[in-house]
Specification:
single chain, 407 residues, alpha+beta, 6-stranded antiparallel sheet, 5-stranded antiparallel sheet, 27 strands, 26% helix, globular
């Protein structure tokens, strides 16, 4: 049995942190999810239990069957084309009308059937999304699939009339406004490379008749992310289900940039250049980009941030053939797999890639690297010389350099 995919949900709170793997044995593939910590056992049990309500309210789409053995969640692997592939095809073909058609179809799948109610306040809603004082009797769902990532909707055997949800961790059995689900959908779609070139966030909200303001929708989603995710990075990759202690990054010199840029450079035979690249913007420490790969590409380079040095962790690169290897070109790596770039032009060379690439990583950006070095195989923080001492050493160095030049 061979592992063809692995991903750690390493930015979630312990009760939601899962390790996902896909195994292949001959022609059979199977998906396995296991909690990284004991606190996650309830989460995988809830995933299995949600199937009963799913069949009641989502007769317009199927789900990958799941079962639990020895506190591990198993799921069938669905072969086919994803909804995200259809979005990318529409973007690459400059087909604006197809994008609108896909948005409406996507939203319809998420709404289910015979699933309507009016919003009513609940402790469950408030604990997950925050106080709902501004929501009044708005159209809502009885049972809500709150995972809007189009990559998790697969058309089995490429049959566009046979859609499946393949990852359904986020089902909720209390009223959630339709507009909140729609806001989440358009926010998720805006992360697809090139989508915003055709449809802005505000235009997307109009297409699905979302009646939440930008502020209200953003506040509710931020509360949701805060309750599911954590700000500090936890190294789950080395846990092997043994529930080891947390490992966190230093944050002394992390800088806050309103909008950051990462770049993919494509070498089609003339080396890497500004003429063959794609830029992507991101707004926090977690980066996820998906990109179609141009034909005749010989190699691809990822610059995880432009004009800054950085730490990069949990770098995962997937393509048509599975997990993609990579190597840093001008940085350092330690035994944990952390990448440290002590320059303002970090570069990572990617392995063989076909058709498309999906890249995920956590990044911390730094303005001062005199604190950080690779020591005994690990990135470590060292005491920094005082400002006065640094000026003294600079003057001494300059003095001796002048003497040598005179000779």
């Amino acid at each position: 049995m061979r592992t063809i995919y692995i991903k750690d949900s390493n930015i979630r709170r312990k009760e939601f942190a899962l390790k996902t793997r896909i195994f292949k044995d001959k022609n059979i593939k199977i998906v396995i999810k296991e909690p990284c910590f004991p606190e996650g056992l309830d989460h995988i049990n809830n995933i299995e239990k949600s199937q009963k309500n799913f069949f009641k309210y989502y007769s317009n789409v199927k789900i990958a069957k799941t079962w639990i053995e020895d506190n591990i969640l198993y799921s069938e692997f669905i072969e086919g084309i994803s909804l995200s592939d259809l979005y990318m095809n529409a973007i690459n073909n400059n087909d604006y009308h197809k994008l609108i058609e896909l948005i409406n179809y996507h939203f319809k799948l998420l709404l289910g059937n015979n699933n309507s109610c009016s919003f009513s306040k609940s402790e469950k809603f408030d604990s997950l999304f925050g106080k709902s004082y501004f929501i009044r009797n708005t159209a809502s769902l009885i049972f809500t699939f709150f995972e809007t990532d189009p990559a998790n909707i697969i058309f089995k055997n490429n049959d566009l009339n046979d859609p499946y949800f393949i990852d359904y961790e986020w089902f909720y059995d209390f009223p959630i406004p339709v507009s909140l689900l729609g806001f989440r959908l358009i926010q998720q779609l805006s992360l697809i490379s090139g989508f915003n070139n055709f449809i802005s966030l505000r235009e997307g909200l109009k297409i699905i008749n979302c009646d939440f303001s930008m502020n209200d929708g953003t506040v509710l989603l931020n509360n949701f992310f805060t309750n599911i995710y954590v700000n500090k990075l936890i190294n789950y990759s080395s846990l092997n289900n043994n529930y080891l202690k947390e490992i966190t990054f230093y944050s002394d010199f992390t800088i806050n940039i309103r909008k950051r840029t990462c770049t993919l450079y494509f070498d089609t035979g003339n080396g890497f250049s500004e003429n063959e690249k794609k830029e992507f913007f991101y707004f926090d420490n977690m980066v996820e980009i998906t990109c179609q790969v141009p034909v005749n590409v010989k190699s691809i380079r990822l610059d995880p941030v432009e004009n800054f040095g950085c730490f990069v962790n949990n770098l995962e690169i997937l393509s048509y053939d599975g997990i993609v290897d990579y190597e840093h070109l001008n940085g350092f790596s330690d035994k944990n797999g952390y990448l440290l770039f002590t320059n303002s032009d970090p570069q990572i060379l990617l392995g063989n890639i076909k058709h498309w690439v999906n890249i995920n990583y956590h990044i911390q950006i730094f303005t001062d690297f005199s604190y950080y070095k690779i020591f005994d195989g690990y990135i470590k923080k060292f005491p920094r010389k005082s400002k006065i001492l640094r000026i003294f050493y600079f003057l001494v160095k300059k003095y001796f350099k002048n003497i040598i030049n005179k000779k």
